[in-house]
Amino acid sequence: MIYGCLFLSVIYYSVRVFWCVAARMSDLEVDQRTNTKFLVKLGKGGDEIRDILVQVYGDNAVKKTAVYKWVKSFSDGRQSVTDGERSGQPATSRTEENIEKIRQIVLEYRRLIVKSIADQVNINIETVRKILNEDLDMRKVCTKMVPKKLTEEQKPKKNHNFFKTF
């Protein structure tokens, strides 16, 4: 009976929590939280829920403290099995604003090194390198940042009379 309830629980909540993988939660964590929520709705206590999770997941079961935390949260009315938004530094510095700042810096002075650009914009060196290569489509040529594809105006004019000078 319990395994049937757990199976139905996973099916019922799988649609709601499918996007959790993108939020860096493993499927195993989502399953266990979903099952914990279901068992809390059935009126089970923390110890009993932990024992059931150990029966089902074995060594991969969440720790007892995590079970108690989620039992309390679900008992208090929490509906989501995913983690809430957290404050702090954004996950990426590759914003349109930073891309435009780097574009302006490079256009003003093309001989800057990546570390110097990173210091001016106050973001990671690797992020600056990715912005230059992937977003701005530029690469370093002889210590000068240039677009990968030059326009006809940017291409240097070939000196066809070069060999005539010798």
Task: Give a quick summary of the entry.
This protein has 166 residues and is mainly alpha-helical. Helix content is 52%, strand content 5%. It has a two-stranded antiparallel sheet with strand order 1-2.
Give an overview of the whole structure.
The protein folds into 2 domains: 74 residues, no CATH class; 52 residues. Helices cover 52% and strands 5% of the residues. The protein is built from 7 helices and 2 strands, in the order αααααααββ.
| Total DSSP E strands | 2
* Count of helix runs: 7
Average pLDDT reading: 76
Enumerate the strands of the largest sheet in spatial order, edge to edge or round the barrel: 1-2
Q: Main sheet?
A: 2 strands, antiparallel
Q: State the share of residues found in helices, binned by percent.
A: 40-55%
Q: Could you tell me how far the N terminus lies from the C terminus, measured between alpha carbons in angstroms? A: 95 Å
**Percent of residues in β-strands:** under 5%
Main features:
disordered C terminus, single chain, two-stranded antiparallel ribbon, mainly alpha, 166 residues, 5% strand
How are the elements arranged and paired?
Blueprint: H1 2-17, H2 27-41, H3 46-57, H4 64-75, H5 96-108, H6 114-121, H7 125-135, E1 138-141, E2 144-147
Antiparallel strand pairs: 1-2
